[in-house]
Every structure is written in C-alpha cells, then in structure tokens.
Amino acid sequence: MFKFLKNKIKDAVKNISKNVEEKEQEETTEIIKEEKPIKEEKTIIEKETKEKIEKIIEEKPKKSLASKIKEKITTKRISEKEFEELFWELELALLENNVAVEVIEKIKQELKVDLVDNPLEKNKIEDIIENSLKETIKDLFKEPDFNLIEKIKESEKPYVILLLGVNGSGKTTTVAKLTKLLQTNKLSVTLAAADTFRAAAIDQIQSWADKLDVKLIKHDYGADAAAVAFDAVKHAKAKKIDVVLIDTAGRMHSNINLRDELKKIVRIAKPDLKIFVGESITGNDCIEQATTFNEAVEIDGIILSKADIDEKGGTAISISHVTDKPILYLGTGQELKDIEKFNVSKLIENLGW
Ligand SMILES: Nc1nc2c(ncn2[C@@H]2O[C@H](COP(=O)(O)OP(=O)(O)OP(=O)(O)O)[C@@H](O)[C@H]2O)c(=O)[nH]1
Ligand SMILES: [Mg+2]
What we know:
By secondary structure, the chain is α/β, with parallel strands linked by helices.
C-alpha cells in the first residue's frame, strides 16, 4: 500500500521546501535594497538639530539590518497566499491517490496552522512539513476501542457478526478468513449463507465451510435471507457456538429495496457487530458506500479488502475520518491467512515515516 502516494508525497514536500527557500533568497535581497534609502535619510538628518535626530532614531524600526537578515537566514515565514500555491502539488498528489476531498481539506487546514506565519527554521522546512503531515494523517485514523477476539470472549454466546458491502467486495472470502482467525483463537464458528440471491453463492460458502470444517446454515436460493441468519443464530445458541458469521449478498448501496432487506436481517438476527467490507482500491466509491450503509444500518467497523493490490492507499487514509468508524482488518490476498489486524503505525511506516 502507498507505493505511489509515498513517492508523490516525498516529491511534493521536497518541492514545497525548495520553493520556500527560493522565495526566501529573493526576499533577503529585497531587504538589502529596502535598507539603502534609510542610510541616505540618516545622512540628511545629521544636519538637523540634536533633538530631532534623537527623535528620528527613536522612531526608527527596532530591528537592525543585521538582525533582520539573520532572522531571514535562520527562519522563514510563509504567507497564506504562498501556502496556497505551495500546497497545490501536494493536493494533486493526494487527489490522484484516492484521498477524499474533505480529508484533503482537513490535511490542508492542519498544515496551514503549523506552517503559515510561523517562523520556520531554515534547512528544516522539509522535516517540519513532513512531521506536520505525518501527525495529521495519523490523527485521521480512528483506532478501534476494542480488541475483537477479547470482546467475543467476554460476550454472551453466540457473538453475531454481519458482513455487508457491494458486489464482489470480498465479503465471502473475508467470512472464511475471519473463521480461520477465530478458530486459531480457539473460538467455534457457525456460518450463515444469507446470500440467497447470487447464483453459486451458497456453493461458494459451502466449499469454504467444508475446508474450515464448520457448520453452514443454508436455505434454498431465493429464500428469505433474514430467516437464514435467524436459523444460524438459533443453531449456535443450541450448540453453544461462540460466533456466528453472516455472509450477505452483495448490494449496491444506492438500491433502496436491498437496503431494506439488509435492515430486516439486522432486525431479526440482531448482530453484535456490523462490518462493512470495502475494496481498498475503489477510493471515493468505497467511502461513499460506507457512508450510505452506515446511514442505513449503522456499521461498527470496516474491513478493507484487496489492500495487497492497492498501491494508492487513499481509501485507508480517508474512510475512518469520513465515517467515524475504525478499520478493523485489512484483507491482503486471496488465501485464508491473508487478513491483518489494522495497525496505524505500520501504515504510517509504509508511507516512509
Ligand atoms: N487480492 C485480493 N483479492 C481478494 C481479497 N479479498 C477477496 N478477494 C477476491 O475478490 C473476489 C471476490 O471475493 P468474494 O469474497 O467472492 O466477494 P463478495 O463480496 O462475497 O462478492 P459477492 O458475494 O458477489 O457480492 C474473489 O476473487 C476473491 O478471491 C483480498 O484481500 N485481496
Ligand atoms: Mg459473496
């Protein structure tokens, strides 16, 4: 992740600091030019009365030319207008890499507070911009305030997890990966084949259930998805199974009927956790889907699939901030083992920081 964004940010930051230093040289030359008339003025007023001279000296600017130049040499101030010009390249880099517009605006505002009209130590401008950017991006992520495995172990059985998202986002594969993860943590699992809609969906999850040696509760194609979920929870209760994972049909977030069906599954199965599974590579679409699903059924967290093929990373940077929900896991491939607990520090490291 971030293969492209990392280099783009580095280039933009380098260019910003280079431009700042170039501007600085121009301004220092201007100060020297400005100071000349003051000297000429001084020669004229030397002829005037002592009293007048003292008055003029008193009124002269406190800072000498030397101290002005020294301040210019060691520090640099960026005006708001300069900042707008300088930020443009970074803004483009973020846009090209799927960072949401409202998130870019937030990054811009935070950088502005740190950079505009503050004396910035020369030669450290690149570091200052990079640090400010790093802290801002870090703050964009919402860390989950719980550990899923611990939460399940503390909760009443069965702990019910519903996975939702648009077509092909990786829900069924994620159900299988989570099953493996839970089994590794000594938790028993029942699956619910609540995608009764797409041809071969039940066969697909059945083959995962066989591989993972877990019970799959299924009805026929076209059956009521909520009833499948309800039966799975009932089965898990009777068998004292720790977790029920409900695989739902892919649905466009804009389809009102399918959104209502999802609401019905939620009403009947009463999941403890609703997870939106979104494709990391789809950028702003993914963020819009998460926002719409969140409005419909209030999601609790996000799993971003296909992080292994996402070289931009802007979705990961933006989605928590826009939805105010944490990213719980990243899907990092097509195998059962390819699921990683989401870790902000690791992600920031990938950005080269
Ligand atoms: N590279 C990669 N591929 C993934 C990942 N997760 C899922 N896939 C692939 O994405 C495709 C779709 O995955 P599914 O799990 O069937 O997606 P779904 O959301 O259940 O799809 P529908 O049920 O049709 O809505 C499959 O080919 C998966 O192998 C991932 O993390 N990385
Ligand atoms: Mg599926």
